[in-house]
């Protein structure tokens, strides 16, 4: 009975009482947190491999051919400059790296739980658009992260050249991982710019012609951003970041122009056979109303005049 009572027929429009919404949110959050915890355990198991992967760009910048964990016991030359301090430092770093890896590994699960909580309140076309945006957003973020990871060696090499002679530059591992994570996030989010523009065009906030008119400012802004995001003086690294973003911007502008033309053609054709036309609720002036006599307006309610004899009718 309890099991059948829980499986009630859901409202097709996703409406439910507040208590049901809170219960649904609790279940979705529980599943997402459980997935992150399991993925974090996987991050603990592969903790050393994750550290080697994140520190490899800096190691390559100083000419190291071996992983950081193989060189941790050696404090010779430039390869041993990545350090840690404090008794609790390694443990804290392990927890931080494992949780971050857990969030990344479990992203398909908690993104689906978020989608499952929001989707019942969306219309069919809104579900279709949101699924397309999510499907395009994740690959774009990964492409940006890929570019940042391959720009890091050149950036580290340039930055380490500012170290004074006869000095050793000690690189704290926690600060190094923060720098790598920050660059990955910045590069990944920068590749989401075309997707944001497409979303604004789909909702009618920005037209394609206006986006096309922004091209000079967008090229300049992306170039300046690439100059600050890549702390190197060579134009190759700047171009490697700016060129894909500019290309994606023009692709988004082309999509917006085609979408605007499609909307105009659809509006010119009018509503489809299975769609209701819009009602014109504007009041109209009906002019002056002519006065009508009571006898003409209500002929059935006016009694005929009775015949009178000697001043009296037949009743009296």
TrEMBL record:
Pfam family of the protein (one): TatC
Binding partners and assembly: The Tat system comprises two distinct complexes: a TatABC complex, containing multiple copies of TatA, TatB and TatC subunits, and a separate TatA complex, containing only TatA subunits. Substrates initially bind to the TatABC complex, which probably triggers association of the separate TatA complex to form the active translocon.
Organism whose genome encodes this protein: Streptomyces ossamyceticus
Family from the record: Belongs to the TatC family.
Membrane topology: Multi-pass membrane protein
Keywords from the UniProt entry: Cell membrane, Membrane, Protein transport, Translocation, Transmembrane, Transmembrane helix, Transport
UniProt subcellular location: Cell membrane; Membrane
Major site of localization recorded for this protein: membrane
Entry function: Part of the twin-arginine translocation (Tat) system that transports large folded proteins containing a characteristic twin-arginine motif in their signal peptide across membranes. Together with TatB, TatC is part of a receptor directly interacting with Tat signal peptides.
PANTHER family for this protein: SEC-INDEPENDENT PROTEIN TRANSLOCASE PROTEIN TATC, SEC-INDEPENDENT PROTEIN TRANSLOCASE PROTEIN TATC, CHLOROPLASTIC-RELATED
Protein name, entry field: Sec-independent protein translocase protein TatC
Coiled-coil stretches noted in the UniProt entry, renumbered to this chain: none
InterPro entries from the UniProt entry: TatC
NCBIfam families linked to this entry: tatC (TIGR00945)
